[in-house]
Recover the amino acids of this structure.
């Protein structure tokens, strides 16, 4: 489905939904004068077709999938990037992250103690 068809379906769905709401309004305003069931049926049909068009336009994932680059499998990776190397690199990064968090916590404690000392003075 091309992009133009998706846009046209969305526009047509919007028009039909507004029309369905208007026909429902007409049915409600004329319910005391005459009980015209055709207005109710017409509004339900218009709103149903609008919902169908919205769902159909929303499910068109083909336009998004065609622009994605192909995903390379893990087996095509070079030999230097084996799973053991990746695990080691991950562990190193986790160690650096722990050091960073500890330093951040120490600095926060120093800041809190400095603020407490300055408020005591």
């Amino acid at each position: 489905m091309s992009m133009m068809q998706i846009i046209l379906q969305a526009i047509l769905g919007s028009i039909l939904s507004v029309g369905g709401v208007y026909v429902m309004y007409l049915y409600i305003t004329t319910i005391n004068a005459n009980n015209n069931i055709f207005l109710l049926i017409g509004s339900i049909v218009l709103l149903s077709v609008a919902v169908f068009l919205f769902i159909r336009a929303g499910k068109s994932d083909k336009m998004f999938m065609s622009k994605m680059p192909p995903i390379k499998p893990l087996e095509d990776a070079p030999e230097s990037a084996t799973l053991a190397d990746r695990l080691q690199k991950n562990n190193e990064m986790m160690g650096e992250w722990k050091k960073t968090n500890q330093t951040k916590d120490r600095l926060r404690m120093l800041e809190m103690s400095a603020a407490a000392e300055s408020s005591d003075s």
Notes: The chain has two domains: 3-65, 74-120.
